[in-house]
Design goal:
Layout: E1 6-12, H1 21-33, E2 40-42, H2 57-60, H3 68-80, E3 83-92, E4 98-105, E5 111-116, H4 127-130, E6 139-141, E7 146-149, H5 158-166, E8 171-175, H6 183-197, E9 200-204, E10 209-210, E11 213-214, E12 220-222, E13 228-231, E14 237-243, H7 246-254
Parallel strand pairs: 1-2, 2-3, 7-8, 8-9
Antiparallel strand pairs: 1-14, 3-4, 4-5, 6-7, 9-12, 10-11, 12-13
Amino acid sequence: MGGVEVRATLLQIDVDQKESVAARRDRVAAMVRAQTGADLVVLPELWTVGAFAAEDFAAEAEPADDGPTAEAMAAAARDARVWLHAGSVVERDPDGELFNTSLLFSPEGVLAAAYRKIHRFGFDQGEAALMAAGRHIVTARLPQTVVGLATCYDLRFPEQFRLLLDAGAQTLVVPAGWPMRRLAHWRLLVRARAVESQSYVLACGTAGTHSGVEQAGHSLIVDPWGEIVAEAGPGEQPLTADLDPSRVEDTRTAFPVLRDRVLGLPDPRP
């Protein structure tokens, strides 16, 4: 890494159900193409359909590797020559199961990683009832940093981020569709995941209101000390910051809390 900066841009998208999925897909692809100075571009969770639009999940489901969103985002990443975390889509697998799947494309437009959301929100309704759970921790090596992938509700489960840390993650990328009524939790949890992992966290949310749920916006870029580097407002906007990946190892060396982890404690259950 050696001080080579990474320019990261989070595109906080307004998900308006008056706009068709196809129109929004084209609009977002154009926004990605405009980010030619970035190294890494990040989109929110389920920006095509809306994270709370459960009634539309089945109709808008698509293959993760060659569906219309994957094809459009692969082309946009290739045209802009950026690494693109394309947020997540409603994936329909060959067996007909639905997943909340995030996609990472290389600057050549190649699908470099896909992550199926492990923790589904809804308490037996919505996403939790309609989508299957992912089972795998996913990281990907970029030229300057190793990214760990998580999505929205995953933020509430720190054990997943410990596993990403152990898998080598230095930058945690978290697309989300987080509601405004829990904005305080969003800001707290994003910073907590950065502090405990001593990693950058790029947390990209949606704006607007869909299915009657006002979105929090307030995408965040947080450094390994838990300091907010950049924060968006509530509306649609890009959020850009230059990250120094060497700060991750510098932080872990200067404050070596991770070496004091105690693992393998006995199971407290009888």
